Amino acid sequence: MAGNKSFAAKVRWWRKQRGISQLDLAQRAGISQRHLSFLELGRSRPSRDMIELLASALTVPLREHNALLVAAGYAPAWRETDLGASELAEVRQALGYILTQQEPYPAVVVDRRWNLLMANGGAASLVDFLVGPMAPGPRVNLADALIAPDVLRPFLLNWKDVARYFIRSVEADAAADGTDETVALFERLTAYDGVRALGVAPVANPATPVLAMHFQKGGTSLKLFTTITTLGTPQDITLQELRIECFFPMDNETDEILRTWGAGKGVPKP
Predict the structure, then answer these.
(1) Domains defined along the chain, listed by start
(2) DSSP 120-169
């Protein structure tokens, strides 16, 4: 991965990861191939402006843009602000608005590695029904909750299909962001019992246009599909890595149950 390496090694790694030649990258950045070759060999020290050009040409995430700067001996350019900080009050307000508008359907805000940051009432009701109220304490990781054998898996009838799709997405994230942390998440998830055996299933002629999560507990069936939204034009690492996941009912039965919960009539007993 791109972590724990020299600037030269990081640039080479990102170029190869993006699948482009030295000539292509040099043309994108408006420099000579010879200059780029010297940078990749460590024979030339880049300026901050040069790092900006290369990071932009390679569409490097803000976190790894900082890593390029630090590796070259410069101070980071991009801030990573805690979501609870006063500077992000307007963003939190916008996120809260999105979550509220999604009611009575579930919606959550997570970071790049699926740590839960915010949730609406619909999400709380769903979790309450499936596994009970979330206890205060350590941060909840939704990736672990989905893939681990003893949280959501027992109630997800099509867990193999959902897990297979999700694991592929985390693997793609690890390739895209170049961080050791996302690689560690992928390795942790694939170490859970039964995950490595999932393999790759054929996807020809799918029965539905989107893959729904089919939960079943007692006599209650819930079929939900999701959408993922990100913030536009982020200039902060935290904001670039935020994801808003909204759940929608796949059938009328699920819709009626979620609306019942939203009306305050209680979570049905399994």
Answers:
(1) 7-71 (1.10.260.40), 86-262 (3.30.450.180)
(2) -HHHHHHHHHHH-PPPSSSPPBHHHHHHSTTTTGGGBTTHHHHHHHHHHH
